[in-house]
Amino acid sequence: MVSIAVQLDTDRAAAQHRARPASTSCDDRLADGPWAMDALPTLPPPPAQYGPGSSDHDVAPPTTPVQTTIPERYRTASPAELDARVTAAKEALGERLVVLGHHYQRDEVIAHADVIGDSFQLARAARETAAEHVVFCGVHFMAETADLLSRPDQSVVLPNLAAGCSMADMADLDAVTACWEQLGAVLGRAPDAPGPDGRVGVVPVTYMNSSAALKAFCGEHGGIVCTSSNAAAVLEWAFERGERVLFFPDQHLGRNTAAALGVPLSSMPVWDPRRALGGHDGQTVRGARVLLWRGWCSVHQRFTSAQVDAARAADPGVTVVVHPECPAPVVDAADDSGSTEKILRLVQGAPAGTSFAIGTEINMVRRLADAHPDKTITCLDPVICPCSTMYRIHPGYLAWVLEALVAGEVVNRVEVPASVAGPARVALERMLEVAR
Ligand code: SF4
After folding, report:
1. Is residue 384 within 8 Å of 299, Cβ to Cβ?
2. Which CATH number fits domain 34-40+47-166+390-417: 3.40.50.1100, 3.40.50.1260, 3.40.50.10800, 3.90.1150.10?
3. Is any ligand 1 atom within 6 A of the Cβ of residue 210?
4. What CA–CA distance (Å, rounded) separates 46 from 95?
5. Distance between CA atoms of 217 and 293, rounded to whole angstroms?
6. Neighbours of 271 (CB within 10 A)
7. Can you tell me the distance from the alpha carbon of 319 to that of 329, in angstroms, rounded to the nearest whole number?
8. pLDDT for residue 23 is more than 60
9. Residue 194 and which of 136, 239, 254, 378 are 20 to 30 A apart at CA?
10. Distance of CA 377 from the midpoint of ligand 1 (Å)
11. Which pLDDT score is estimated for 250?
12. Where in the chain is the domain with CATH 3.40.50.10800?
């Protein structure tokens, strides 16, 4: 029965894959006005529904920033008018401004970005720029990281404070602290205290996609930050120092990376923060090599191995490349996996005529397809939506923050408090040392 169900699933996905036009998305309303989507908290919950408002069902910490209503003129302006306003404001600010755009941003915003990259590249750009104002077209944790790495006299601005990351919100400081205390009780010593062989009980490792408070937690407890491009080097660093790793918030990146390093799945229990001892007994926790936080990316968790099969059924010569935030069966079934930068390099370096099915956010895949008309580039998911929180950076918000800067007012500044910034920088610097 199971194999028939899987085959039906595969056939359906293959048919969708063949029939799909390149621009298919689940709901175009998301593009029009994120302020309208923000006002839809009562949509029915997933799993069937994905698209506008779907992030409303993610658990957001009470400290999550709230965006104020912006003036009506920005909400009702035409795309052409907003484009002209952003262009004029950028010209007026000149070298006092740098606009950073994440790969997953919409085209209308990317058109105005001075630097395009992943979260780590953009954080580096924020550190290296001489500009007085850094307008970060990404999500909240990225703006926090840019603030941590930039000079105190620079301001980092996030055009829409409601542009969070549902994955980052799945691990907050209270929940991680509670986990840490339980680990201490099970191990019989503070988790960051050395054992007989000099190694600590637990090394906390946080993905870049986390709040500054969690980066600070890692800084204070002998831990470190990682990105999707350096996670393997960071895990090796952590294994040298600790008996086990607590990896948060993305279970998939942790599992895929540790598995590639030879850690068996049986040594990687998932820590559910809503259950006592993460849902395990003490023996399982003590025997763990990696404790994987129960978090995920709502965009990348949608990819399935059936979609990989479908892509290959539709085009036997296709190369399937996926992001390591995808579930392990998808990464295992793909030809390759890696960060957005690695995906970019693979496509750029491939000869004309190569065919790719890519498992990552749709805006990036579409732009890759546009930039490489000599190659066939499709998204692995026939109906994938953009990252709905990233997409909240509408050009209306960008025009608003830029025109405020022209008028001498800094709105939506993201500033990490000094008490958090210090230890958070410690964890970031450890990462920079490990993976330069
Ligand atoms: S794509 Fe996923 S991990 Fe990235 S910002 Fe969106 S929800 Fe967060």
Report:
1. yes
2. 3.40.50.10800
3. no
4. 45
5. 15
6. 27
7. 16
8. no
9. 254
10. 21
11. 97
12. 34-40+47-166+390-417, 300-379
Give the position, in ligand 1's atom list, of the atom nearest the Cα of 388.
6
**CB–CB of 104/384 below 8 Å?**
no
Residue 380 Cβ inside 6 Å of ligand 1? The answer reads no
- Single-letter amino acid, residue 254: G
pLDDT per residue as tens digits for the range 243-300: 999 999 999 999 999 999 999 999 999 999 999 999 999 999 999 999 999 999 989 9
Determine the Cα–Cα distance for residues 327 and 231; give it in Å rounded to an integer: 16
- The atom of ligand 1 lying closest to the CA of 164 is 5
Contacts with 377 (C-beta within 8 Å, 6 or more apart), sequence order: 347, 355, 356, 358, 365, 368, 369
SS3 225: strand
The Cα 319–Cα 76 span in angstroms is 43
Phi-psi group of 141: left, alpha or beta (phi > 0 → left; psi -120 to 50 → alpha; rest → beta): alpha
Residue with tokens 């036997």: 316
Q: Which atom of ligand 1 is nearest to 387's Cα?
A: 6
Choose which residue among 57, 59, 118, 139 to substitute to test ligand 1 binding: the one with the highest number of ligand atoms within 8 A of its C-beta: 139
Sheet holding 336-337, edge to edge: 336-337, 319-322, 355-359, 376-379
CATH architecture of 300-379: 3-Layer(aba) Sandwich (3.40)
DSSP category for residue 236: H
Burial class (CB in 10 A: 0-12, 13-18, 19+), 264: exposed
CATH code, residues 169-296: 3.40.50
The token pair at 380 is 């692995």
Atom of ligand 1 nearest to the CA of 138: 5
299 C-alpha to center of ligand 1: Å? 7
Closest Cα partner for 122 from 97, 143, 148?
143
